[in-house]
Amino acid sequence: MAVVSRMESPGSPEIQEFYDRIERTSGGLGVLNVFKVMAHTPELMRSWWEMMMVALTRLSLDARLRELAILRLFQVLRCEYGFAHHVRLAKRIGLTAGEIDALAGYESATGFSEVERLVLRYTDSVTDLRPDAPDLAAALLAHLTERDLVELTFCIANWNLMARLLAPLSVELEPPIVAELPPSWSS
Fold first, then answer.
1. For the chain, does the N or the C end have fewer beta carbons within 10 angstroms?
2. Can you give the chain as a three-state secondary structure string?
3. Which CATH number fits the domain 63-166, given the four candidates 2.40.30.10, 1.20.1290.10, 3.40.1110.10, 3.40.50.10350?
4. Closest Cα to residue 8, out of 43, 37, 29?
5. pLDDT at 183
6. Which positions of the chain have pLDDT values less than 50?
7. Which residues belong to CATH 1.20.1290.10 in the chain?
């Protein structure tokens, strides 16, 4: 059960306008619960939306690497809401159900390139705030531009922030998205 209420009805024309924008971009899901919770603080809701839109649509970082990192951090943090939503996004950009299911064992999985494994290791390190993160970042520079590395790190940090909002507030997953969770999620 959610800790804070969802604002089902916008309390102002400003929030109504934002809800209308979310509905147009949510792929038929309406206003997502995360935004209904964040509507308690409209300034943060709008600011995060703008950052998220830049990160999802205007970066030079390869979308596959971005989504692998985001899925992995939600997996590590056991954030069901974020994981399920990003499974949906990851499938749209070409990740397969098998690749998503193999994330937990990425080190030995055959479907990931060495660069992808390095991105996943780096994601684990940044998510856990481990001291090896700078060494992994330096290793990634053999494969990524500095811009891509900054963008990757930003995406990992940004969606870590979201996981740390979603989990403690127990934001509930929208029923149609539950089906996006792979069978391995519950194990």
1. N
2. CCCCCCCCCCCCHHHHHHHHHHHHHCCCCCCCHHHHHHCCCHHHHHHHHHHHHHHHHCCCCCHHHHHHHHHHHHHHCCCHHHHHHHHHHHHHCCCCHHHHHHHHHCCCCCCCCHHHHHHHHHHHHHHHCCCCHHHHHHHHCCCCCHHHHHHHHHHHHHHHHHHHHHCCCCCCCCHHHHCCCCHHHHC
3. 1.20.1290.10
4. 37
5. 84
6. none
7. 63-166
